[in-house]
Specification:
homodimer, alpha/beta, Aspartate Aminotransferase, domain 2, Aspartate Aminotransferase, domain 1, 7-stranded mixed sheet, 3-stranded antiparallel sheet, 15 helices, globular
Chain lengths: ~350, ~350
């Protein structure tokens, strides 16, 4: 199969976007978009949340743009028009709004900022949240100039690669399509992705132990080696998985949200709070905020010892890549533990996790 | 229990050494020794094998000494009088001979070099090899000025901490004992040890993928954060485990060597060679050298998929810490896979590993 087997038109239409372009990776799409903006308006900055996947920041850096990290709101773990507004200036080329873990980042609230900055690309990243709806019932990802979808076994929609959707105010897709050099690797190197994850996790662990740690120099010296991971040519290989993912999206969304709701109802502890997701959301993982980093760490260990999935490697990108302190991101990321909500997750595993958290 | 429950006198006597000093960690002993030499002779260099635990190099660096890495011999994976001799100069303060994985590094061959350099501390590190014997039937660790023992669940002798033995030409133990500041943490922080291992493993993995990688800057910027791991005050906590370890050493040695011998006899492949250990050796892990790095990686993956232990994270320290190329260490470390020989390892796991290697 190839990209032509994927109904890109329908995918764009669903989100009221005018065009869709497939890429070998979600971050390749961002790289191409950022580079197109850098070519058009000159080098400058990309604003993204301090809590976000490092590949978004790398895409900006490889396009010659400087990542500027906006702090998040402690309730949603997403950035706000206020934290972004402080960073917007004449050098701003793009703003990437990430619906982290499935939480609605409320893109509509950025309308005013977007209107005031017509040459800035406003992007919604819905990799974690595809299928979710806003307060007004609109699908997430239909509000801004560009919407990024990405697919992987570990995401909401399985498969590989990503799709960039183009809205009314967007560039001509041909101007973005032509950016990735044909000489770039066609397949994202799996080993390199694992390496990046391992390096970032090991630095995050070190940061958890030594709070006065300066990690920027270490990561900066490694940055050149992940280019082939971010700048990939070609499109989506497993279009069948992606098609199936869209077809089953509403069923998957409901099961994920039901699993999330079990954690939400079950976790009754003063030391642990499930981050609220609205009815109608897609949940990627269920984020639990613990009262202290120590409790988050200890509970992760207990959950894993019981054979349950739990992830606590969240890590403010400003500490890895540089920039001013982001107090809320730094504080909350050290207290997040994410729980799995995958459709095939056995009910008893959810109950076991809840029991461990309530006792911890 | 405390150190006084440990018969240090007997441990020293066994190896014909004149004194024994316990430390909270093996690397704390090295730090104290290096610092004592730096105090006496001024800053300078420590020569150690390019294939070695990074904590030996860190101990030197924290004592203000520069690690110089000697290349290894492709047959033994240990350094030789020739590779060390090239590096010895007026700044040399210490030479650390490591009996890697249990292979006899032939300390006797360094006698001439030692004689010619009376102000240099010659140290044997026998953490992997304690209980093993030389070609002449002498116990390893009785040849040089100092011998380092260290204890951990994953080593030959369980327990914690380390012991530095002092030979004829050694400093007064009191001059080394007084080095570690009382303000240093008394327990080596377990999390920090895991962090160091994870950082080094993630950098090693990155090196395996991107051969032109420059890792020195990254590791250098992280070096300050591992001080508390290397410079620990106090002594051995679980002296009972260490006493038991010495008591059962010959039995454990024989079982480990028997397990090693099964691999040695069983691996019959042109693409994989078990590194030879002499009869009478203690084997820490059974090192297998594959014909190519790719084969070593692929076989590690196959062994792990079958639920078998295998480790391939060996990594030349010159690439992490700096220094001239060490071609043999760089080549061989990328092709080593280590297999477990623990006394309780089931025979069928050994047979299964052999079958996978022969088929790989």
């Amino acid at each position: 199969m190839n990209d032509s087997d994927l109904d890109l038109r329908t995918i764009a239409d669903r989100l009221s976007m005018k065009a869709a372009l497939p890429f070998a990776r979600g971050s390749s799409a961002l790289f191409a978009l950022f580079q197109a903006f850098a070519n058009r308006h000159g080098t400058g900055e990309v604003i993204l949340p301090a809590l976000c996947c490092e590949s978004v920041a790398l895409a900006a850096m490889y396009a010659g743009l400087k990542p500027r990290f906006a702090d998040v709101c402690g309730d949603t773990l997403c950035m706000t028009p206020e934290t972004v507004g402080q960073l917007v200036n004449d050098s701003t080329r793009a703003v990437v709004i990430v619906h982290l873990f499935g939480v609605d980042a409320n893109a509509a609230a950025f309308r005013e900022l977007r209107r005031a900055n017509p040459t800035v690309a406003f992007v919604e990243d819905i990799a974690h949240a595809v299928g979710g709806r806003t307060l007004c019932g609109k699908l997430l990802g239909s509000e801004m100039d560009y919407t990024l979808l990405s697919f992987a076994e570990s995401k909401i929609i399985a498969g590989d690669g990503g799709i960039l959707l183009f809205g009314e105010r967007a560039l001509d897709p041909d101007d973005v399509r032509s950016i990735i050099p044909a000489s770039a690797p066609t397949k994202p190197p799996v080993v390199l992705a694992m390496n990046l994850r391992n390096v970032v996790h090991s630095l995050a662990d070190l940061w958890r132990t030594s709070n006065d740690l300066e990690l920027v120099t270490a990561f900066e010296s490694l940055t050149p080696y992940f280019r082939d991971l971010i700048i990939c040519s070609g499109g989506i290989s497993d279009t069948e998985a992606v098609s199936d993912g869209f077809e089953n999206l509403e069923d998957v969304r409901m099961i994920r949200y039901a699993n999330y709701s079990l954690y939400r109802a079950g976790v009754q502890a003063t030391h642990a709070k499930v981050v609220p997701l609205r009815e109608g959301s897609t949940c990627w993982r269920c984020p639990v905020l613990f009262s202290t980093p120590q409790r988050a760490r200890d509970t992760t260990t207990k959950l894993r010892s019981a054979g349950l999935h739990a992830s606590n490697h969240y890590f403010p990108l400003n500490l890895l890549i540089g920039g001013e302190p982001k107090p809320i991101a730094e504080d909350s990321s050290s207290r997040i533990v994410n729980l799995w909500v995958e459709p095939r997750l056995p009910r008893n595993e959810i109950d076991a996790a809840i029991a461990i958290i309530n006792r911890s």
